[in-house]
Amino acid sequence: MDNTKIEFNEVDYIVPAETFSIDYSYLSKQGLPFTKEFIIRALYIAPLSKLELATFFGFNARELSVALEEPINKGEITYLEDGKLSLTALAKGYFATLDAKPMIEKPQTRNSSVTFELVGFNKVSNQHGSWNSALRLDVNHEIQSLSEQHAMKMFKKHFQRLVEAGDLGKINTHDGALPSLYTVDNVTRKKTISHRVKRKFEIDFDSRVIPFYVDKLYENDEAISNAILQATDNHRLEHNLDEIKLAWDAFQDMSVSRFVKQNAIDFRGMIAEMGSGFTNKPYELLIGPLYGNRALSKVEQILKQLKPTKQQIKPRRLMWIGANTRYWGLSEGFTKTMDSLRNYQSNSKGSNYKLTLFLPTDDHLKTKDQIAKEWKQKIPNLESCEGIRNGLFDGNVEVLLLDNEFAAVCYHMAMPDISPIHVPMGYITRDKSLIKRVSDIVEDFLYGSVAHGKPNLIGSL
Known about the structure:
Distance between the termini: 47 Å
Number of domains: 3
Number of helices: 14
Radius of gyration: 34 Å
Strand content: 25-35%
Largest sheet: 8 strands, mixed
């Protein structure tokens, strides 16, 4: 039990990557032509005169001269002082053992497309991924401008590993032996794509965040790790428990608040209650954002049981109030949840609900078009999205609410002494009185205003 790791948040990081077209040559061992092979085999055993060699193979003088011309010109066969023919050291090197088949290394030209990310220049998949729902890592602009040179260097350094992993396609070699790189003739940048690194934030019962290791994923893991550290651990959060306590008071919360102290969270107590199976409480505890796996599975269980309303009846509203934190929504889990909620909106029997995602902004001077443009860079699809100012309780609270069916509340707690990113915790309930309480607070916020002429609800994005 003491080794338990609790996943409490998830953040994806985007590393810009470039795909390069690389022209190169490699040395591959190949067998010799039939006649040449057996001449060299015979001379490998012992030097022979021209007469002995012609008699052995049944050649006449002209045939023997033609057969010997190419290996003599290549320096593979030479004449001894007594006039006999003998193998040179070059040709003797074709034999690994006395009874082995003679093999030569011959350059083979080839072109491959290889993708390197631009932080540590690790080889990554060249499949184009999304640039959305992730925190983009900074790239050294000087390194990026010289990316073709860095790509050549890494290609040379890790050529045989790329071959072993099949990243260069099928390369035929004798007996499965690895080829050796001969030359790199040209490296050309083709396109820039995104590479996604996923991080699950985990914590133990002593409120210690588990370090994130990428050593098994990348050759140059230090550069990736340092970039992720700079993007998270070095961005210090401001403590927000005072704002969270205002939300607890408004919701009359007796769920999460019982487990949170000023500088500590009783994860042991939370996990014990969550794992007890049955409690007499009108809610279930949640750890993680509302797009986390645990919350999504709970929500989907409810959505699958919904009975569609008839087409002429106004559909129920499923409202998702986003949190206004640096890390909210920066995960493919967010995109997965949005897709799931959209898919459950209706079926052949009718409409289940109408989804609206409320996206917060903290700058009251921005126009709706500016807000939409900023969110478009983070979220690929703004369908059914509306803008709101700040968010619930200064953006520290996330809510998913379906009229008369369920409410899920998540408090995004900034506790820098515990975690470099927010610790989201909350509950989901089907209790009518709790749903009503959450609904009233959401309605008051959406139709309220931060100041005269500045309503909280900005409108459709």
